[in-house]
Design goal:
single chain; alpha+beta; 17% strand; Single alpha-helices involved in coiled-coils or other helix-helix interfaces; 3 helices; 3-stranded antiparallel sheet; 99 residues
């Protein structure tokens, strides 16, 4: 039981570190940022850890690319929803919000 908690805590730490690194290197190498997002996703699946909401909205769930709003993602507010569109695969994510 204790071992699972330690593994999940380390996995969450790794996921946060990978997404921060992806954000940092995106301008120099978008391919490397995409790879970091893929690795973080694989860690979350393997260790059964949810990706934090902050980062969950920063990668495309269809093509697994790291998203940077204004560069390869479009963010719109419409009808009490946040609509995030991946410009790589044209996938849309609709998230409700309450103003």
């Amino acid at each position: 039981m204790r071992n699972k908690k330690i593994i999940r805590r380390r996995a969450l730490r790794s996921i946060n570190a990978l997404f921060k690194e992806a954000e940092r290197v995106f301008n120099e190498s978008p391919e490397r940022a995409d790879r970091y997002a893929q690795i973080a996703r694989r860690i979350s699946l393997r260790c059964k850890v949810r990706i934090p909401r902050k980062w969950k909205r920063r990668y495309c769930k269809k093509c697994h690319k790291f998203l940077r709003p204004g560069v390869n993602a479009r963010v719109r507010l419409r009808n009490k929803k946040i609509i995030i569109t991946c410009l790589e695969c044209n996938n849309r994510v609709r998230i409700p919000y309450y103003p």
